[in-house]
Amino acid sequence: RTIPNTPTIPFIAGDGVGAEIWAASQPVFDAAIEKAYGDEKKIFWQEILAGEKAFEETGSWLPDHTLDAIEQAKVALKGPLTTPVGGGIRSLNVTLRQTLDLFACVRPVRYFEGVPSPVKEPEKTDMVIFRENTEDVYAGIEFAKGEAETQQLIQLLQEQFAVKNIRFPETSAIGIKPVSEEGSKRLIGAAIDFAIAQKRPTVTLVHKGNIMKFTEGGFKLWGYELAETTYKDTCFTMNQYQAIKQTEGVATADAALNEAKAQGKIIVNDVIADNFLQQILLYPEKYDVIATCNLNGDYISDALAAQVGGIGIAPGGNINYNTGYAIFEATHGTAPDIAGQGKANPSSLLLSGGMLLEYLGWQEAADLITNAIEEAIRTKKVTSDFAHAMDDAVELSTQEFGSLLVS
Ligand code: NAD
Q1: What pLDDT digit, counting tens, does each position of 324-368 carry?
Q2: Better pLDDT: 230 or 388
Q3: From ligand 1's centre to the CA of 328, what distance in Å?
Q4: For a substitution probing ligand 1, which of 334, 341, 400 has the most ligand atoms within 8 Å of its CB?
Q5: pTM of the model
Q6: Ligand 1 binding residues, C-beta < 6 A
Q7: Radius of gyration over alpha carbons of the chain, in Å?
Q8: Which of 191, 288, 391, 403 could be bridged to 130 by S-S, CB 3.0 to 4.6 A?
Q9: d(C-alpha 220, C-alpha 304), whole Å
């Protein structure tokens, strides 16, 4: 891709704390770009609407103009949006991801020294999660309790597909879980490409294939297939190791990693999702790049973010690596309990903006933002969410925190 030096990039400030965190963040982005590149590069920010603000001003939660602007620019930055309740309106985030086919939800999880964390050694956690973003139960194919369609579906399953010995009480609601080979492989491929580019030694497929054999079991199978064919020159898999050594199980994981290193390759391994949630608390240092299905990824992303104390500073991006479309976003919600009080931490939006700059290839500007946040936290100049849990912290408002980073 050729990136112009002065791109126009749309942003959605968002609902709740959105306007405050955007107002604090934009000067930081502009200052970082100026410091890194002088007059050579500049972003022209274009406000576009979604969510409550869009509904008030245009009568639509997601106006066509918003989608058009993102399609034209290919990239956008977004604050949190209120999920409309009732009225048959779907989550705006899910709609944006599906409309633009943003198949990878990328969430880096790392520790910033000094951030209050619930675990003893939070610095051992440094992972990047690749969550499949368009399939799984999040595809939104659901049938409500008592509806005629639901009854027809139950009848079809029982009579035509001979699904027997399964309780289907009349009060059943049903959800469908599509997981495709193509969808899994493009996500896992993106995770492997990332690991190769960033020189990360491990890609772990996290799944519940022991129970959901065709969907999540398929995810694991197709992941290994991809690693062993398309990526055979760069990847060695746990599967291959077990076949060669005639062994099984987690005890061989370290040996397989060593073998991969000896071959100068990345190891692709897998772990069952419930075990993974234990493993990340016990041995977070063993995990690096994670590839997983949609629902698992949702749980894992928030659990890992909380582990490093980073629910207010966890960034994210939703990316289609084939078309280039990408929306980077603060991962927290609209925080209605603190909206309008200048208490919100803008770091999640700031670091998501940093991911956007990296995506444009403007690494130097992205690094300046990360370093400035690191320095502010290390010197205990923080917003109220962190200040409350730190000794001797200087509590700054959202805007003051942004101004500190600019200076
Ligand atoms: P939330 O993330 O808004 O709030 C959870 C807690 O975290 C609150 O105590 C809040 O004050 C705190 N918090 C969140 N962001 C913070 C920040 N930047 N600085 C300091 N503290 C922060 O989650 P919720 O209350 O479950 O959801 C509120 C609304 O946001 C709902 O409408 C929900 O659907 C929506 N939501 C949107 C997104 C998104 O747009 N990506 C994500 C999650 C929730």
Answers
A1: 999 999 999 999 999 999 999 999 999 999 999 999 999 999 999
A2: 230
A3: 16
A4: 334
A5: 0.93
A6: 17, 80-83, 93, 311-312, 329, 332-338, 344-345, 348, 385
A7: 22
A8: 191
A9: 21
